[in-house]
Write a structure and sequence with these properties.
141 residues, mainly alpha, F1FO ATP Synthase, 2 domains, 87% helix
């Protein structure tokens, strides 16, 4: 087992217990609290990623390396992960809205099935763009 797994498991369990306790105590405010917890965790993850990247570049300068070459495999992999994550989140939101609208349109007029699925497919194409960008970035790593 890796050290990161041993460190993150208790944190995840504590956050899960706090979320469950908050939802039981006040279900009406539960969603707001859950969103707030997710925002705090997301900001913390971005800060940690920034610290890791800053430490990585600082170590390169201390070793006498030149950053003018622009070749950093960890940065390329991080960029690929961000591209896939962002495009997947965007595609899921787009498919949720277009899928709901497509089902409503199909229930009114069944002959709209083909057009509705094309629109949902276009929304899913956003995720494919993210994967293409990730493949291009991984080729640089």
């Amino acid at each position: 087992m890796s050290v990161s797994f041993l460190v993150t498991t208790p944190i995840v369990l504590i956050v899960a217990a706090l979320v469950v306790a908050g939802l039981r105590r006040a279900p009406a405010k539960g969603l707001r609290r859950l969103v707030a917890v997710n925002v705090i965790i997301g900001v913390g993850a971005l800060i940690m990623a920034g610290i890791v990247l800053a430490g990585h570049t600082g170590a390169a300068f201390a070793a006498g390396g030149s950053s003018t070459s622009g070749h950093d495999p960890q940065a390329a992999l991080l960029g690929a992960a961000i591209a896939v994550a962002g495009s997947t989140i965007g595609a899921s939101i787009a498919v949720a809205y277009t899928g709901a609208a497509a089902l409503a349109a199909i229930s009114e007029k069944p002959e709209m099935f083909g057009r509705a699925m094309v629109i949902v497919g276009l929304a899913e194409g956003i995720a494919i763009y993210g994967v293409v960008i990730a493949i291009l970035l991984m080729g640089r790593a």
